[in-house]
Amino acid sequence: MRLALLTSGGDSPGMNAAIRAVVRQADALGVGILGVRRGFEGLIEGDWRDLRSRDCANILQRGGTILHTARCREWLDPAVRAKAHGALRAEGVQGLVIIGGDGSFRGAQALWEEHGMPCAGIPGTIDNDLPGTDLTLGFDTALNTAVEAIDRIRDTASSHERLFLVEVMGRHSGMIAVHTALACGAEAVLYPESESDHYEALLANLQASWARGKKASIIVVAEGDRLGSAYVVGERLRKEHNLDLRVVVLGHIQRGGSPSAMDRIWGSRWGAEAVRRLAAGSGAFYLGRLNGDLVAQPMEALLGPPPVPPAFLGELVPILSR
Ligand code: F6P
What we know:
The chain is of the alpha/beta class and 322 residues long. The protein has two domains: 2-138 and 259-303, Rossmann fold (3-Layer(aba) Sandwich); 139-256, Phosphofructokinase domain (Rossmann fold, 3-Layer(aba) Sandwich). The chain has helices spanning 15-29, 39-45, 78-90, 102-115, 139-160, 175-183, 198-211, 230-241, 261-279, 311-320; strands spanning 2-7, 32-36, 48-51, 95-100, 119-123, 163-168, 188-190, 217-222, 245-249, 284-290, 293-298. Helix 1 (15-29) runs parallel beside helix 9 and helix 6 packs parallel to helix 10. The longest helix has 22 residues, at 139-160.
């Protein structure tokens, strides 16, 4: 048997752990792995090579993806997919392992629906926003990176008795923002799924905290918040309340770095499981973790609502920063 393997969409720490596990589990089963570079772009261009166990030496602890990754609009064209499928078949490929987010999984699902190519998805995105799993690869590392960065910002915020707005990633999801805010004792968090009128709530929380004698504050802002970026919110606060505040955008440092133990472990488990299931004849599915257990979902589960940060966590942030 021969399987193709690719990483797609935004990279996330732990992708290399998953690649290593796919290749080595396949090796152990006598299955060949064709490593595709640059996601679907590489599938279209035939940019691939065989991967063996020794090609994955010393990558477990490395961030990024040795296969490189891309977001590929061309893949939306059925004719492009048909051509790529023909090329894969010509290489003797009987299944695809894809490490990425929901958009990437949909790209793989199309190969299954149109051409019957079995596909295994490994959830790889720092956003932790896939239905059917309570963890995605890279979330734990990104969270720890953001918390470590904000701990440093807290030092200077305290020294200068300043307000900081710190923007974290999450174009459509507040998962990183809410968990980071809780873990670093932020005074407030702004995130897209929050139900409250959060500008008013934010002001009320800040004023209450200043009235209690707190001089330094940190507001964590999700990149995709409805009020706008941290710069936009900061500008509004500055104008309306004449505040001497600072804005920090953590940006892509959250996507890099050595994966946490948690991301290495789940990358390894999911990688091995993906190969085992494809070798046993599974169709199109993606892996996840629910209540601590490894689970597999049919690709259709992607249609379900994405997970949102539990409201009580967001509400806890101002209570615990009193
Ligand atoms: O999907 C992961 C993610 O990191 C989002 O949180 C963020 O909005 C986006 O990728 C950034 O993408 P890019 O690297 O293309 O700017």
